[in-house]
Known about the structure:
It comes from Pseudooceanicola algae. By secondary structure, the chain is α+β, with helices and mostly antiparallel strands.
Amino acid sequence: MITQKLNxxxxxxxxxxxxxxxxxxYWQPAALTDELTAGxxxxxxxxxxxxxxxxxxxxxxxxxxxxxxxxxxAPSHHPxxxxxxxxxxxxxxxxxxxxxxxxxxMGPGEPPAFPNFDxxxxxxxxxxxxxxxxxxxxLQALEIGIDPGHASFLHRFLQDEDPEDSYGKQFRxxxxxxxMPMTQVLREYPxxxxxxxxxxFGLKITALRHMANDxxxxxxxxxxFPSAICIPMSREMIITQWHVPIDDENCYWYTxxxxxxxxxNKDLMRAQRLKEHRLPDYAPLKNQSNHYHFDPxxxxxxxxxxxxxxxxxxxxxxxxxxxAIQDRTREHLGRGDAAIIRYRLMLRKAIKALExxxxxxxxxxxxxxxxxxxxxxxNDAIADSDDWLAASLASDIERRKAAPWNATV
Length: 409
C-alpha cells in the first residue's frame, strides 16, 4: 500500500502535477486521423487536463491551441464544434500524424524524436488505429495492461471458438508452434511466473506458463514509458496502446494494430469496434449505466465476466469499478504485480528527475539515441522449458523476416 500523498503524485496530470509534468515530455495521442474533417478544421480535444482545439496554422500544419471553456459542456471530453473559441495568446502545441493517430507535444523545448517502433515504421496499409473512452484515471488503465496474470481470469473464455473466424480479436489465435488455442492456454495455465527487465523504452515483461511435457508458454509484453503498452494480439499482429489522460478521472486508450503479414482489413476492424462504441466521443455502449450488459447465463457457460466477448469491456469494467481514481492506500501487491511495482518506481524516478532539473534521465529523452530504438519484441511462443528465451527470440525473428515491410531489428 502507499500513502494518499504518493497516490496523488503518481495519478494526477494537470499542468502543475508531477505525473503531468512527466507526460508533457512525451508525444501524446490527441485524436484519430479519422476524426479530422476536410475544409475548416476545428476539432475539440481534452488532453492532460487542458481544453484544446485542433486546427491548422497558416502554413497548413496541424496544431493544438487552448480554447475557452463552454458553459454547460456535456460530455466535457467532446463538446459541440460550434462552441469552440480559441484563447488568443494561449499555448500552441505541435501535432504530428503517424499511421492514423495525431500526436501532440505539450512539453518544454523541442519535442523528442519518435522511436522506430514497429507501429510507426510499418506502412499505413499494415496499421489500423482506434480509440475508446474509459471513465477512470489513466494509471489504473495502464496497470491492467502490464499485469500478465489477469488475462487468465478476467478474459477467461469457457469455450474455444475457431481462430479462423476471429480476425481482429485478441486471444482468439492459436498459440505459436502449437494447435492449442490461446484461450485454452490462458485458461489451463493461469498462474505464470513473471520476469521484468528494464529497457531503453520502459519495461520488458515475460510471462512463463509452465505446461505439461516440460514445455513453457512464453508471452512477451512491454511497457512503453510513460503510459503505453505493446503486446501480441496474434501471431501476425501486435497492439501498441496508449492510456492517455483526458483529466484526472477520465482517459482514452488509443491503439495501433500492426500486422507483420498481410495488410490489415481496416473496414472490418473498424466495423467490429463501432459495434461496441458510439461516435463522436468513442464512448463504449456497454458501461456503468447498463451494468456492462452483464448476463448471468453467459457467465455460467461462456465467459468469466458474463459481459460479452470483447475483452475491452472486461478491462473497462475492472478499471472503472475501482472508482475514478483507485485508492491504493488499501492495496496489497504480491509477486504477480512485479511489473506494476517496477513501473511505479520508474515513474517516481522520472518525477524526481524533473524536480531536480535532470529531464535527460527520463526514458527516451536522448534526441540522438531515441530514433535507434526498434521493436519492441512482443509475441508468444511454446518451447522446451530449458530453452524458452532462445525460442522466443527465434519466433520474433522468423515473423520479422517474413514481413513485406522492413521489420528488422
